[in-house]
Write a structure and sequence with these properties.
Length: 401
């Protein structure tokens, strides 16, 4: 592995602030090449997409390059990549379209491990169509969401299942490919919220069996936008509401209005940057991404093991979730101290680890944390052992104060 965290850190001007950033699951810091790509797109000749003028061609190339980069990131097809402002916006749009075929007697399945953006829009769409919602629930002791639990909610009435790729608070990574197989056995569609998973693991949407898969670029070194990835043939079969003069082409007909070319250029640059996280990565962009994401996973898991070992010595600490397969994200409380006070005390020490339910509302409630939640510390590609030791030292000090 040629994962060199110090070399990576040099590309992030915001790290010169001296802040230790553990708020990556909420949004990561941005490397210079991403900002440069945004700026370059904006100051180059740029018009609406087309093929006649240079400025039109620039816009067109940015869009096509974005789709091909996203396809390489997740193992999908470029024509199946839909741009969106955020995952939440994409889920709302797609839930309204997909649910057009649901009716009374039909069932959909969501889980209480998920971020609310992968719960509420599907529930609201089901309610509007008279369909029934079934819940797959995680084990609150271990944090695991088992394949059996999801399978138990399925029947020949199930039309649609949406499950997170990883919990954005306790990090649990459900066994997606096994769940996907169960969902397809009953002939339902399977959607995966990959927003918290994609920044931490190599993704292969075909191996997962995800009919829909989405992630947000701003959680993985890019600008604020998201993508929904599906088989182009599946997109063709969906009939969304759209403006009359806008194209029927896929994926364009799911992307409303004029696209933000500069943001798309930045998102592509973030994927290209990710492909080079491990200097030893070689081959096609897809091969480099898989290699670099495996190296990042190895690096983060080692650091996470260190964090979990060290944090246990802090008086009164309670960590939630202990799933076997999880992202490097810790959700914890410090004795009887209010989590918001712990967050503020850390902030005074230039350490960013906020406290909230982080919109994983059902998960926070199931854990007995109500709507308040707890403190979250997530690792990112630029996190060092020194950052982790600073966090542990500060928590120890706060716990004893
Ligand atoms: C797992 C997960 N899903 C969805 C979202 C929402 O993403 P977006 O801000 O792109 O709507 C988040 C954001 O925190 C998340 O962590």
């Amino acid at each position: 592995m040629a994962y060199n965290v110090e070399k990576i850190r040099a590309d992030f001007p915001s790290l010169y602030s001296g802040t230790a950033f553990f708020d990556g699951p909420g949004g990561s810091q941005t490397p210079t090449p991403v900002a440069q790509a945004i700026s370059h797109a904006l100051i180059s000749p740029l018009s609406n997409r087309g093929v006649t003028t240079e400025s039109e061609r620039n816009a067109n190339e940015i869009v096509l390059e974005y789709r091909s980069a996203v396809a390489d990131l997740v193992g999908g097809e470029a024509k199946g990549v839909v741009y969106g402002r955020s995952w939440t916006q994409l889920v709302y749009d797609f839930s309204r379209t997909i649910s057009k075929s649901w009716g009374p007697g039909d069932e959909i399945v969501v889980s209480n491990l998920d971020h609310d953006s992968n719960v509420r829009p599907w529930i609201q769409a089901a309610e509007a169509r008279g369909a029934t919602v079934k819940w797959a629930k995680f084990d609150t002791t271990t944090g695991e969401l088992s394949v059996e639990e999801v399978a138990n909610q399925l029947s020949n009435k199930t039309k649609f299942v949406s499950i997170t790729g990883a919990s954005n608070v306790i990090g649990t990574k459900p066994n997606l490919s096994a769940i996907g197989k169960e969902v397809h056995k009953v002939g339902a569609l399977f959607a995966v919220d990959g927003v918290h998973l994609t920044p931490h693991a190599p993704i292969d949407v075909k191996a997962i069996g995800a009919d829909f898969f989405g992630f947000s670029s701003y959680k993985m070194l890019g600008p604020h936008c998201g993508s929904m990835i599906a088989d182009p043939a599946l997109l063709e079969s969906l009939h969304n509401d759209k403006l009359l003069p806008s194209t029927m082409d896929v994926p364009e007909r799911f992307e409303f209005g004029t696209l933000p070319y500069e943001i798309m250029a930045g998102a592509t640059a973030a994927i290209n940057y990710t492909a080079g996280l491990d200097a030893a990565a070689a081959g096609t962009r897809r091969e480099k991404i898989l290699f670099s994401m495996n190296s990042l996973d190895e690096y983060e898991q080692e650091l996470f093991a260190h964090l979990r070992r060290e944090i246990t010595s802090i008086p009164g600490i309670t960590c939630f979730g202990s799933a076997t397969d999880r992202t490097p994200t810790l959700f914890f409380q410090l004795g009887n101290k209010a989590s918001v006070d712990v967050y503020k005390a850390l902030a005074q020490r230039n350490i960013n680890a906020p406290a909230s339910n982080f919109y994983a509302l059902e998960c926070s409630r199931a854990l007995g944390l109500g709507d308040t939640g707890a403190v979250r510390a997530g690792l990112a590609p630029y996190t060092t052992k020194d950052d982790v030791d600073r966090l542990v030292g500060a928590l120890d000090e706060i716990a004893r104060s």
